[in-house]
Amino acid sequence: MSADIDQANRDTVSDNISNLLVRKGFPESEVRTKAVTVLLSDIRGFSAIANSHAATDVVALLNRYFQRMGDIISEFEGRIDKLMGDSILVVFGLPESRETDVERAIACAVAMQQAMSELNDYNQSIGMPDLFMGIGINSGEVVVGELGSNHYNEYTVIGDEVNLVSRIESHSLRGQILISERTYKLASEFVEVSAPNQIEVKGSSDAVNLYEVFSTTRPREMEVPRREERKSPRVNTSMPLIFQLLSGKIVQPEKYEGVVLDLSYNGMMISTEERLPVMSEVKMSLALELFGDKKTDVYARILKSEQHGDRYRSSMEMTNISREGQAAIKQYVDQLILAS
Questions:
Q1: Would the CA dihedral through 86, 34, 37, 70 be positive or negative?
Q2: Which sign does the torsion angle of CA 324, 325, 331, 332 carry?
Q3: What phi and psi values does residue 68 have, to the nearest 5 degrees?
Q4: Cα gap 163→179, rounded to integer Å
């Protein structure tokens, strides 16, 4: 019964959107409901990069990235729906749905992640920062049509499934590809994935299962690059830090204090008086012993936050850090391992 009600709600939403498009002046024949697979990619920590480099360098960096990603998307016959800052929304199934939509979308995502190494090698050669990308994929019915007014309009996709892919992408860490339950069911015969991770997403009353993609066999065998940092050792430490919360991509002015309890090449566990919202992002200033008086800014995403006595412990993964800071943290971790 609940499934019937859910489908009825979706039909109502689709009808309402279609009616809206028609009232905007676009012919009803141009408004359709279609089954598609949607891919959304986003650069992790891009705000920090934009704030720390010249605008012309940032634009050139983005253009190189968009060109390479666009080549890959074209190779797998996806349709770029729009560019949103440093994000790319891609649709597989337009103008007509095909049986290979899901496999091409997943293969495209894998190829995009593989291409980041080549891009970052070039960035390093010209003194620009590494880029890291998260990707979300979802499959389902969307409303397709021209949306806008006489001043501006675009042929685009809208609906619940597009909103959901945005939520999925927001949970992906750098280098990850996350797919929805619906996409996994369509791709289970040819993808290797993690165990499901159940999360709460905004706009949904029920928790949803997400799967991290490791590899695919269609249209050919392809593996998602595994970052060395995810497998790095962790060391115990007691390092003070000052951090600020981000709202969207805006750093909030209020500053908080905490202590780093353990540290790896690309993540840490911190202790704070406040519970930090899971999947929120923070900006922190680390004062490592090996930096002397120098500090380095780090952006990180909260993966878990649990109460421990009268304080809270939060595990996080870094989303953006300078090469100098990354090298210093690795050296710091390695030195502590040798000392122990």
A1: negative
A2: positive
A3: -65, -45
A4: 14
Asked if residue 68 has pLDDT above 90, the reply is yes
Residue 32's H or E segment, with its range, is strand 32-43
pLDDT (tens digit per residue) in 8-40: 455 554 555 445 444 444 444 467 899 999 999
Amino acid at 243: F
Q: 218 pLDDT exceeds 60?
A: yes
What DSSP designation does 196 have? P
* HEC-encoded secondary structure of 41-108: EEECCHHHHHHHCCHHHHHHHHHHHHHHHHHHHHHCCCEEEEEECCEEEEEECCCCCCCCHHHHHHHH
In CATH, the number for domain 229-339 is 2.40.10.220
φ, ψ of residue 255 to 5 degrees: the values are: -110, 145
Return the CATH number of the domain spanning residue range 31-226: 3.30.70.1230
How many Å apart are CA 86 and CA 174, to the nearest integer? 14
Residues contacting residue 76 through CB under 8 Å, at least 6 positions apart: 92, 104, 105, 107, 108, 111
Peptide bond before residue 95 is cis, with ω within 30 degrees of 0: yes
Q: What radius of gyration, in Å, describes the C-alpha atoms of the chain?
A: 22
Q: How many CB atoms lie within 10 A of CB 307?
A: 9
Per-residue pLDDT tens for 73-109?
999 999 999 999 899 999 999 988 999 999 999 999 9
Write down the domain spans for the chain. 31-226, 229-339
Q: Which residues have C-beta within 8 Å of that of residue 241, sequence separation ≥ 6? A: 257, 258, 259, 260, 270, 284, 285, 286, 287
Q: Six-digit token pair at 102?
A: 């899901």
Q: Tell me the two tokens of residue 45.
A: 């920590």
Distant-in-sequence, close-in-space partners of 195: CB < 8 Å, separation ≥ 6: 211
